[in-house]
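Hi again,

Forgot to attach this to my earlier email, sorry! This is the prediction with iron/sulfur cluster bound. I've pasted everything inline since the attachment limit keeps bouncing my files.
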Amino acid sequence: MNYLEVKDLRVTYRAGEGEIPAVRGAGFGLAPGSKLGVAGESGCGKSTVALALLRLLPRSARVQGEILLDGEDVLTMRWGRLRAVRWAGASIVFQGAMHSLNAVRRVGDQIAEPILLHENATPGEVSRRVGRLLEQVGLPRWRAKAYPHELSGGQRQRVMIAMALACEPRLLIADEPTTALDVMIQAQILRLIDRLVGEHGISMMMISHDLSVLAETCDRLAVMYAGRVVEEGPADSVFADARHPYTAALSSAFPKIGDPESRRNPHGLPGDPPDPADPPSGCAFRPRCPVAEERCSTVDPVLWPVEPAAVGNGAAGRAAACVRMLPEMRSAGVAAEPAEPNVAAPEESR
Amino acid sequence: MTAPAHSEAPAGHGAGSGEQREGIVRGLRYIGAKLLTAAVSLFAVMVTSFFLFRILPGDPVRSMTQGREVTVEQEQELRRQFGLDQPLWQQFLDYCAGLFRFDLGVSYQYRIPVAELIGERIGPTVLLAGTGTLIAALLGLVLGTRAGWRRGSATDRVNTGVALLLWSVPSFWLGLLLIVVLASGAGWVPGLFPTGGMMTPGTTGLLDVALDVAHHLVLPVATMVAVVYAQYLMIMRSSLLDEMGADYLTTARAKGLRDALVLRRHAVPNALLPTVTLIFLNLGQVVGGVILVETVFAWPGLGSLFYSGLTVPDLPLVQALFVLFASAVILMNLLADLVYPLLDPRVRT
Ligand SMILES: Nc1ncnc2c1ncn2[C@@H]1O[C@H](COP(=O)(O)OP(=O)(O)OP(=O)(O)O)[C@@H](O)[C@H]1O
Ligand code: SF4
Ligand SMILES: [Mg+2]
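Structure tokens for the complex follow:
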């Protein structure tokens, strides 16, 4: 059984008069001890998903769907249980460590806080553990006395990682853990996370807009576009052999270093993602899709298994949300009645 | 000079003493700059206070001799005695020289040295203003925190509404209202509190005196608090609102902290930083409040002294008090500058 199972997650922000459907039916699973990469452009709803996993969204957000963490639905949990699950069951390394740490408290105290909260540990034990955690992330013990502003960006992110590991969680959610850092440090931090997660046998969900980084680190990839997962599958095959035109564009926007094929074709993706408050009819990617067809404006494709026969070996467990993946459509060329409820036919086609 | 705490620095924490010395030098420079600013402000206040009260209408000698038959010679003699026959610049120089010798001149009304008068009256004012400000600040911080944390809730609306209403009420009006309702014994409410003064004459014994003073203190303090706490509430509320969306609060929640702990451990310490500065900056308004409240409640402090001095005008007295009040505000601001680094580690280093 998957440690994390997200089913048809929908998050809508109330903003003034209007509503922003930031996540529109996203789903994915994460096996124990495995690493899932979530990729997608800015604004596609990655952080919203991450925050939803521990019910950390602001009150302006309406959340629907199912988030099963070790079999328990996070969305219907009682408060007490939820607080116990937070950090001990799953912890988060946030996007910007500068603002995610409290500026007026020593980093050692901030790392110790969840330990004191979730476990019966004596102060001496806690401070020893804080020291050990700091050493694990490559900081000397005495740095526990530092305030966040006394550390560099990379050191702060190391503190965040130490903090996230403090209660030995089973799942680590890393939301763009390196965006605010310069390139050299980014690589260091990614290696650090990768190593620690492996050593502790922790499952990880890593969010990034850089598909190539995720492909290198993770076992599986989920590519998000406009609030949905549009492609999902084993990391290598998704990255090397994209089935969804958006994934294909993402892989060429971040070429694999040393790969001459992608070098020759380094085009980015033209245009902007759709306004979440006013998505286009049919496939949300249509306005930017280089291979869009007529039916793409009437059919709203949902994640669909990619036929193993069509992609060859090693493609088991792949899925993409594109009309070109739907078997009956490929043959008939019409918006056929979907075989499973998770392919939604829009009103226009009825 | 010794360098304590140095031996505690763990190995690898080298370069300690140099860094430490540098830090001390920077600290001293900071304090020096703040002291200099305070001194300049103080000088400006001295000059202002001299000229300000000379614009007031009224002739001090006329007021002093009001209702009595005086000859022109007697009037002239009075003028000479108080130095009012001198040219303005000479008066100014005398005034400055006096200030530096702590010789504040002789009160026109009371005919005793101003310094002596102030010495007698300063205790009650410190008691009233201190108690009032402390209660108002605590009340404002607590209620402001509650209001901000639940923005838009009933708690928020009631708290802010009441505070703003009380804020908009003139303090003398509120004071008089309290006297009429709670102290005069008129109507159906018995006179629960004294109408004015600080002590019932003839009270003896330390405990009795303390209780009696406290009893007299209730209404004036209540008036002051009612009028002043709204500012503290609004400041705390808005600085808390500024922190509300901050990422470190999401971190705190993600750790599994209860809402109350997220507020107490994380949001409040951050929201307090701007609040503390603003509270100190607002102390000037406390001075204004104290003058009115003391006058309404006949509280024997500097405020009522100032008020009585203004009507004469008792120039040496009001000048000295003006300088004193302004110095208190300047001193508080200086204190804020010196206290702030203790609260905010980012300023400390
Ligand atoms: N608190 C909020 N209130 C209203 N709208 C929000 C809120 N937070 C996010 N959104 C909107 O929801 C959408 C998804 O935002 P989200 O932060 O999840 O994107 P993201 O994929 O994490 O982007 P990035 O790569 O920039 O971090 C965006 O359109 C954003 O404007
Ligand atoms: S459904 Fe159509 S528009 Fe959407 S990605 Fe596939 S081909 Fe492009
Ligand atoms: Mg994000």
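Residues 16-54 of chain B form the longest helix (39 residues). Residues 105 and 293 of chain B are 27 Å apart (CA to CA).

That should be everything now.

G.
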